[in-house]
Design brief:
Length: about 325
């Protein structure tokens, strides 16, 4: 239940090695004083903390403890090691996954990942995201090219097996890592962005195919989301605030449907395009109608004859008119 702090002098390499698992029974093991610590045993229980200026090197060992990277620290996960505890990456700290392969994160644990001004670099690995709850704040960065999995058309760093939510609570944050919403289950990824926060998604979001338009992105919270990568999705839904589609490259952006409510806005940046391949529904209670007053009264206030001053075709392809002038 106490705290053990490693205070080995000098900045050389240290090795954590014992006959069995390093068990932190409700306490905390702090790796400190600079240099590299190489983990040769599994670590369980309590909290494993890496102090400022110190690097943890894990070559294939399992960590079931909570892992905390203090400001200015680093950790390298090499090969097939498994992380099962909660993860916190603080300001200026970097957690890096090195080498090919997937599932360093045990996707069934349900533990939180919190990136508070730090960076997680998934490199060329693919991480299955199931029950993990992800929180980004104060300039957090998720990056990495990912692994080409199962013949996918694109590499995948964040592989969402289940519906998931990424909470963005403060500051400007970025997801540059590629994300896959499993096409076989049409997964939903929710960006919940607080009023004083913003999220820029520069990594591709896809269903594993260059042409698949399945999987849903939902925007909630009063903050803003900008998607600067290509969008090929089933649905974009915004429950509040605004979401901007900003990709301007070849192929454009395609979704099947758009749903906006509670005053939410979908914006298409200059030079970008958005193709809505199915019908889109706009509700008068949430959509600023282009008529003079109210959708039901539009044709009663015309001043230039009985001809509509709005396009007589609704976004879902139906015609509307009134004949009781």
């Amino acid at each position: 239940g106490g705290v053990i702090e490693a205070t080995v002098n000098g900045n050389g390499s240290k090795i954590i090695n014992c006959d069995g698992t390093v068990a932190i029974s409700g306490g905390k093991l702090i790796l400190a004083n600079g240099g590299d610590y190489t983990l040769l045993n599994s670590v369980s229980g309590g909290t494993l903390e890496v102090a400022n200026g110190t690097t943890l090197v894990n070559n294939g060992k399992e960590i079931t403890s909570s892992l905390v990277l203090a400001a200015g620290s680093a950790a390298e996960m090499n090969g097939s090691c498994v992380l099962k505890g909660a993860i916190t990456v603080n300001n200026g700290a970097v957690l890096t996954f090195i080498g090919n392969g997937s599932d360093t994160l045990d996707w069934n644990t349900g533990n939180p990942i919190t990136v508070d001004g730090g960076t997680i670099d998934f490199g060329n690995t693919r991480q299955s995201i199931g029950s993990w709850a992800i929180t980004l704040k104060n300039g957090a960065l998720l990056t990495g090219t990912g692994e080409n999995a199962n013949g996918s058309d694109f590499n995948v760093a964040l592989d969402f097996y289940r519906d998931a939510t990424i909470n963005v609570t403060s500051g400007e944050n970025t997801i540059a890592a590629t994300s896959r919403l499993r096409d076989s289950n049409e997964r939903t990824l929710t960006y919940n962005v607080s009023a004083n926060a913003a999220l820029n998604v520069t990594g591709r979001i896809h269903a594993g195919s260059a042409t698949a338009t399945v999987g849903n992105v939902v925007k909630s919270g009063a903050g803003s989301v900008t998607i600067s990568s290509q969008v090929m999705l089933g649905k974009i839904k915004a429950n509040a605030g605004d979401i901007t589609v900003a990709y301007t490259g070849e192929g454009g952006n395609t979704v099947k449907s758009v749903v906006l409510s509670n005053g939410a806005e979908l914006r298409v940046a200059e030079g970008a395009s958005l193709n809505i391949s199915n019908n889109a529904a706009f509700y008068s209670t949430t959509y600023t109608y282009p008529g003079a007053i109210d959708p039901g009264d539009t044709f009663y206030v015309l001043t230039a004859g009985y001809f509509p001053h709005v396009t007589p075709i609704t976004p879902d392809g139906n015609y509307f008119y009134k004949d009781d002038f």
